[in-house]
């Protein structure tokens, strides 16, 4: 079982373990390319862009040992950044930052903070938000994926909400922050790659 918690803090050990879990969810028969990023990047990159957003969601990065940046090439290019946190003498996967291409133009929109009753909706540009909010399945999927609480290695994790549609040239990007989802009574965990791509497809379809 791979619950995204490990007895090592070595990227050479942890990286392949997390890659294996993500590859399992994607259904790929070949290893997925990824890079290891430690500390603050000296130059701007997709990885540093996601890392900067992530710092604001967790209130800093003092417990982050390193980041793993995964690339998903194909019809919908996307990246996943996994923050690997210190846990005693070991480590666990923490904040998950997704960024995927939307092949239609859009204005900026962001999913609201959770509500006591009902599902949160998008706020921002009127036209884009109206299209997103009109699809009940999309709203449900966005609320489920952009969760604010999770668990990794028996450690409870909390983040601020981030599910945004961001303009990018003649298209847009979907940026989502989430946390590992325990499965099999905590013996395993999921990063919900398929759920992210499904949400991206729904967003593109309604725009």
Strand composition percent: 25-35%
The tally of domains stands at 1
Helix-strand string = EHEHEEEEEHHEEEEEEH
Average pLDDT number:
87
Q: Give a quick account of the main beta sheet: strands, pairing sense, barrel closure.
A: 9 strands, antiparallel
Percent of residues in helices comes to 25-40%
**Low-confidence runs:** 40-45
* Gyration radius, in Å: 17 Å
Structural class: alpha+beta
Give a structural overview.
The protein has one domain (5-206). It has 5 helices and 13 strands. It starts with a strand and ends with a helix. The model is unreliable at 40-45 (pLDDT under 50). Strands 1, 2, 3, 4, 5, 6, 7, 10 and 11 form a 9-stranded antiparallel β-sheet that branches. It has a two-stranded antiparallel ribbon with strand order 8-9. The protein is globular, with a radius of gyration of 17 Å. 29% of the residues lie in helices and 35% in strands. It has 207 residues and is of the alpha+beta class. Helix 4 runs antiparallel to helix 5. 36% of the residues are buried.
Secondary structure layout plus pairing:
Layout: E1 5-6, H1 11-26, E2 34-37, H2 46-58, E3 64-72, E4 78-87, E5 90-102, E6 109-111, E7 122-124, H3 126-133, H4 136-145, E8 149-152, E9 155-158, E10 163-168, E11 171-178, E12 181-183, E13 188-190, H5 193-206
Helix pairs in contact: 4-5
């Amino acid at each position: 079982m791979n619950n995204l918690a490990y007895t090592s803090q070595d990227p050479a050990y942890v990286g392949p373990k997390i890659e294996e879990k993500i590859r399992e969810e994607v259904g790929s028969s070949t290893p997925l390319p990824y890079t290891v990023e430690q500390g603050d990047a000296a130059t701007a990159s997709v990885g540093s862009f996601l890392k900067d957003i992530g710092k604001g969601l967790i209130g800093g990065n003092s417990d982050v040992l390193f980041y793993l940046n995964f690339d998903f090439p194909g019809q919908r290019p996307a990246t996943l950044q996994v923050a690997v946190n210190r846990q005693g003498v070991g480590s666990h996967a923490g904040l998950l930052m997704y960024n995927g291409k939307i092949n239609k133009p859009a204005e900026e929109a962001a999913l609201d903070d959770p509500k006591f009753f009902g599902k949160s909706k998008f706020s921002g540009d009127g036209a884009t938000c109206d299209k997103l909010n009109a699809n009940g399945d999309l709203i449900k999927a966005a609320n489920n994926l952009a969760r604010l609480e999770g668990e990794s290695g028996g450690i409870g994790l909390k983040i601020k909400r981030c599910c945004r549609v961001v303009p990018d040239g003649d298209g847009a990007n979907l940026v989502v922050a989430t946390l590992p989802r325990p499965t099999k009574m905590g013996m395993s965990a999921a990063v919900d790659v398929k759920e992210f791509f499904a949400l991206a497809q729904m967003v593109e379809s309604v725009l």
